[in-house]
Amino acid sequence: MNILISNDDGVYAPGILAAKQAVEDLGDVTVVAPDKNNSSVGRRISLFKHLKIENCKLDDGSEAFSVSGSPADAVIVGADYLMDKKPDLVITGINQGVNISCDITSSGTVCAALEAVSLGIPAIAVSLYMDPETSFKKDDDGEWYIDYDFSLTKKVLHDIVLKIINEGFPQGVNLFNLNVPSNYESEEVEITGLAPKMLDKKVIDNTDKQKEDFFNYELDDTQGRDDLIMITSNLVRQYPQGSDGYALMVEKKPSLTPLNVNMTHYKLKDW
Fold it and tell me: pTM of the prediction?
């Protein structure tokens, strides 16, 4: 099996190496990813714009390619230009965050997988939800760091790809969206649907005293403040049973959502 791996966190993010390590015994793996972080860019494509490709090395010394574009760009360049043969499977991730609900269409991770499907290649988008209570830690000097524990995510991803090799994708499914909690209570994978939303969004300005420090983050002192706004968000905490958010946040188990990129609703007759 020829496997293309990409992401939206950038080619040097620890999650892309974890994804490669999870499946490198199952096929020939090629890593092509953006040269820098491209979170929340959706399915942006750099049509008729110059892109730069560079050879680079992952932390284990293996070869990878960076692309000066979006996650969708990286998938197109990898599948159509850099690989000798069209990939049989595209894996995007492992994203360092969470991608659930109908909000996934803003995710660079999921939309890179959507781009793969549009090229006729089935895909898996993978994310590790890092629980703030357990993933953010202090070292002996009191400095904060993030504990990227990809062990369960790698195991689940490996098992899913192995099942795909043996059985293929289920009929009508061309994209899996996998989310794994870092602070899990069960390793059992739950097959889920999309929750209505993941983020509560709010527009703030400099009059919002509760988020004044956040609003001033990287503010250019030469720029006036009266015309500045910021879109902020909070993670939704309540989800319906059977949804990806419920499995991930409430049951604290891996969520696997089977999707079909064709979003047509065929049952409309007499509208």
Answer: 0.91
